[in-house]
Write a structure and sequence with these properties.
Blueprint lengths: L5 H14 L3 E10 L2 E9 L6 H21 L8 E6 L10 H6 L4 E4 L2 E9 L4 E6 L7 E6 L7 E2 L8 H8 L2 H13 L5
Parallel strand pairs: 2-3
Antiparallel strand pairs: 1-2, 4-5, 4-8, 5-6, 6-7
Subcellular location: Cytoplasm
Main location: cytoplasm
GO cellular component, one term: cytosol
């Protein structure tokens, strides 16, 4: 049996992560001489704790060893397994990424926004334009139109106005965005 492909490992890993309510964000394999390295990044609506990551690591290690004994996979002369979280630089590509980062700053095409409400049915997200002078603004955009968005680390306390807009339900914020783009609020 050849060295396992990422797709094979992902299929092997999925039942373990699904049982714990985690999403597989990345599986990376590196064949390094006699020893191989497998890195699995998982996340969830509640960030995994170190104890949970250790439990997943132990379970995956047993699973990989059993699969290797059966001849289903071949890691060569052994492997190192690392189970981790994806980290702050994970691009926001899925609806769940945006949902989990609501209220946080993101960088999109060089501009900074705060993640607001989502509409899962239409795949749209509210991007709050930070306060410069006056009131913050909002944009409602399809997630599919946003590429390369990553979370920005924020050291200062965010402005209350931005947080309030980020926490506003999608239906209400969509109306505010519509009014600001059509000029209805300029009376």
């Amino acid at each position: 049996m050849a060295f396992p492909q990422v797709e094979e490992l992902t299929a092997l890993i999925r039942p373990v992560t699904d049982a714990r309510g985690f999403d597989i964000e990345a599986v990376k394999t590196v064949k390094a001489g006699k020893k191989s390295q497998v890195v699995v990044a998982v996340s969830g609506d509640d960030a995994p704790t170190l104890d949970q990551l250790e439990d997943v690591s132990n379970e995956l290690s047993e699973l990989f060893d059993a699969a290797e004994e059966r001849g289903d996979v071949n890691f060569g002369a052994g492997y190192t397994l690392e189970v981790t979280t994806p980290g702050i630089d994970l691009p926001l590509t899925e609806l769940r990424h945006w949902r989990r980062n609501r209220g946080r700053l993101v960088k999109v095409d060089g501009d900074i926004f705060r993640v607001g409400a989502l509409d899962g049915a239409t795949g749209q997200v509210v991007l709050v334009v930070p306060v410069k002078k006056g009131e913050p603004g909002v944009r409602v955009v399809p997630i599919s139109d946003v590429s390369g968005a990553v979370v920005e680390i924020e050291f200062n306390t965010p402005p209350v106005q931005e947080i309030e807009l980020a926490e506003t339900p999608f239906g209400e914020i969509a109306e505010i965005a519509e009014e600001s783009t059509t000029g209805k609020d300029d009376k």
